[in-house]
C-alpha cells in the first residue's frame, strides 16, 4: 500500500508540476522559437529564378518584443501554440526518466541534462532523448511558427498541416532533415561529455563554493557554443522536406498536400505575419551551410538571439546540480 500511495503521490505531484510548467513555459518558449526562427536578411536577396526578392518581414530583435507581437496579432491562443506537442514530449520523456532512470522531476526536449545513473543510464537517456527530441522539436517548432490554427485534439489535421506528404509517408525523413541531426547530436555530446565531465570533476567529490563558482562560470560561458546550436536547431527544424525518391532530401517535389483551402484557418491576416521565414525553395543544405548562410545573410548576431535565456538555463542547471550533490553528501 505504501508503494501504491507513493506512486499516486508522485503521479499527482508530477501532474501538477506539468500543468504549472506548461502554463508558464509554453508562451515563453513560443516567443523564443519565433524570435530565433525569424528571417531578417541584411540585404536584398535573389529568389531561385534570380529575381530580386525584397524581404518585407517584421523586424523584431527582442524577446519581450516578440512576446508582445504574438499577443497583439494572435492573442492568448497564439501564445499557447505548441502546447500539445510540448506536453506529449514532456510526458513521454518524464515517464522514461521515472520508470527507467528513477528520476523524480520533469524532463524536456528543449534542454538535455544528463541523469547521473552511471554510464549505462547516461547512454540510455542520451540515446532515447535524441530519438524523441528531434521529431518532438520539429513538430513543436513548426506548430509554433505556422500561421494556421491547429486544434489541440485534431491530430490528423495538424499533421497534414505541419508535415509534407513525403514526411507523412516516410516519417524517418524527419531524421534526414539537412543538418538537424548533426546540430542535435552536438548538443547531446556537449552535455554528456563536456558539461557532465566538469560537473563530476568539480562537484561530485568535495563540494565547495569555489568549485561551484568555477562550474557556474563554465555553464555561463557555454552559451558561446550552445546558443548558436539552439538557433540552428530552430531554423533547421522548421525547414520542411519535400523530397522524392529520385532526389536528395532538399529537392522540392510538386505534389498537392490534399488540404482544401477552407480547412486552413489563419490567426493573422494576409497583410501581416508574426514572423518572416525563408522561402522553402531555398533551403539550408546542411549544418555547415546553415551556419555560413546565417552569418552571411543575417549576421553573426543572429546566432546569439536571446542568448541570456540560454545562460539562465545554464545557471539553473548548475544550481540544480549543486543542490543534488549537496544533498548526497
Structure in a nutshell:
This protein has 329 residues and is mainly α. Helices cover 61% and strands 1% of the residues. The two termini are 31 Å apart.
Descriptive notes:
The protein is an all-alpha fold. It is 61% helix and 1% strand. The chain contains eleven helices and two strands, in the order H-E-E-H-H-H-H-H-H-H-H-H-H. It has helices spanning 2-37, 63-79, 83-101, 118-145, 155-162, 165-169, 180-204, 209-221, 223-237, 287-298, 307-328; strands at residues 45-46, 52-53. A two-stranded antiparallel sheet has the order 1-2. Helix 1 (2-37) packs across helix 2, helix 3 (83-101) packs antiparallel against helix 4 (118-145) and helix 8 (209-221) packs antiparallel against helix 11 (307-328). The longest helix is centred in the first third of the chain and has 36 residues, at 2-37. Mean pLDDT is 80; it is low at 245-256.
